[in-house]
Design goal:
Helix content of chain B: under 10%
Largest sheet of chain A: 6 strands, mixed
Oligomer: heterodimer
Helix content of chain A: under 10%
Distance between the termini of chain A: 37 Å
Distance between the termini of chain B: 37 Å
Largest sheet of chain B: 7 strands, mixed
Order of helices and strands of chain B: EEEEEEEEEEEE
Shape of chain B: globular
Largest interface: A-B, 25 and 26 residues
Order of helices and strands of chain A: EEEEEEEEEEE
Structural class of chain A: mainly beta
Shape of chain A: globular
Number of strands of chain A: 11
Strand content of chain A: over 45%
Strand content of chain B: over 45%
Chain lengths: 113, 114
């Protein structure tokens, strides 16, 4: 069983719509959760992190965490063509893991005009 | 902003060569990581380091070694390059082990072994 799972997509949404990206994880002791955006040919860049149950908003982005269901999601409101990228979910197990992050395989998002 | 610099953007090496990939960060971070990224496989951890001269194996260490002689520099070594090591290699740095710390990635090195 994969530790961090994402739907690989591609997810296609029209410009202005809400894009919803989902991630599940297997380690119930996981402490913090990160969303990275990766443009084609580029390295990942951090866009959000969350460690408490509930929602966290930053501009057009909202991260949602449900530890009981072992589920984390990223909502992108008013999607723009510039949001087209691969979105990576990453999980920190905490404890003595020295801050290692385990990544999902990523969801490809395409926002079409 | 933290800057993580990887010495080469593209490299082409021959099978059997010893290959050095260099990574330097400028924020005095303790934790540094090497991943490789392959289509369909995502990011896989090769090695990481939590202090100078300290290293730990990740999920796929076979065929690789690392060196961390100074805090700012973390090197990945391919002892004898093989074609199955053709990949994108990403170095990352992390400011701490607390919940709020994410990675900052370097720009990546695309290695082709022929």
């Amino acid at each position: 069983q994969k530790e961090v799972e994402q739907n690989s997509g591609p997810l296609s949404v029209p410009e202005g719509a809400i894009a919803s990206l989902n991630c599940t994880y297997s380690d119930r002791g996981s402490q913090s959760f990160f969303w990275y955006r990766q443009y084609s040919g580029k390295s990942p860049e951090l866009i959000m992190f969350i460690y408490s149950n509930g929602d966290k908003e930053d501009g057009r982005f909202t991260a949602q965490l449900n530890k009981a269901s072992q589920y984390v999601s990223l909502l992108i409101r008013d999607s723009q063509p510039s949001d087209s990228a691969t979105y990576l979910c990453a999980v920190n197990a905490g404890g003595t893991s020295y801050g290692k992050l385990t990544f999902g395989q990523g969801t490809i998002l395409t926002v079409h005009p | 902003d933290v800057k993580v610099t990887q010495s080469s953007r593209y490299l082409v090496k021959r099978t059997g060569e010893k290959v050095f990939l260099e990574c330097v960060q400028d924020m005095d971070h303790e934790n540094m990581f090497w991943y490789r990224q392959d289509p369909g496989l995502g990011l896989r951890l090769i090695y990481f380091s939590y202090d100078v001269k300290m290293k730990e194996k990740g999920d796929i260490p076979e065929g690789y070694s690392v060196s961390r002689e100074k805090k700012e520099r973390f090197s990945l070594i391919l002892e004898s390059a093989s074609t199955n090591q053709t990949s994108m290699y990403l170095c990352a740095s992390r400011g701490g082990t607390g919940a709020i710390y994410g990675y900052t990635f370097g720009s990546g090195t695309r290695l082709t072994v022929v």
